[in-house]
Amino acid sequence: MKKRVSTIAAMLLLGLSATVSAGELPSWLTGEWQQEIGDRWTEEVWTLPRGGVMIGVGRTGRGESLRSWEVMRIVRAADGSLAFHGAPEGGTATIFPVVEQGVRDITFANPDHDYPQRIRYWREGRLLMAETAKMDGSAAQNWTYSPAGQ
Questions:
Q1: Domains identified in the chain, total number
Q2: 107 close to 118: Cβ distance less than 8 angstroms
Q3: Are 87 and 70 in contact (CB under 8 A)?
């Protein structure tokens, strides 16, 4: 009986991995997120996946001063692939195609961009983690977001 349950569990996990690798929008990213360190703060808000897109906005500041802001999208193309579109300060969007995706993590990369070249999001329990870096992992910047208001 134990062996049969383990086999069924393995089949379910394999099926879940196959679904995620097919270009699922990362619904686990949905929500309002914040990081506060002293008087410095960073916030991101992501909509539910709908119509093949998730829309995000982010802003950073210190005290009551806004330092920067960005409009973001994660878009599913006609072929099912995903890409992150980032437009800091409302400028022209830079596109970062997905290069790796798991059940609760996603990595986008664009080696032709100056910085960042790699954008990664993942969940650790109730926390949302984020990292930007160069392709080799250097110049990494990291964020640990908590759900806003908690």
A1: 1
A2: yes
A3: yes
Question: What per-residue confidence (pLDDT) applies to 23?
Answer: 82
On the 0-12 / 13-18 / 19+ scale of CB atoms within 10 A, 107 is middle
Nearest to 126 by CA among 62, 53, 31, 50: 31
Spatial distance between the Cα atoms of 51 and 75, rounded to a whole number of angstroms: 9
**What are residue 29's phi and psi, to 5 degrees?**
-85, -20
* Single-letter amino acid code for the residue at 58: G
- Give pLDDT tens digits for 42-61: 999 999 999 999 999 999 99
Q: What is the DSSP letter of 117?
A: S
Read off the pLDDT of residues 61-84 as tens digits, 9 standing for 90 and up: 999 999 999 999 999 999 999 999
How much is the pLDDT for 7? Answer: 34
Q: Is the dihedral of CA 46, 35, 104, 101 positive or negative?
A: positive
Q: Which pLDDT belongs to residue 20?
A: 38
Q: Tokens in use for 44? A: 């991101």
pTM: 0.85
Helix (H) and strand (E) counts in the chain:
1, 10
Question: Which structural domain range is residue 66 located in?
Answer: 2-147
CATH number at residue 60: 2.40.128
8 A C-beta contact, residue 134 and residue 116:
yes
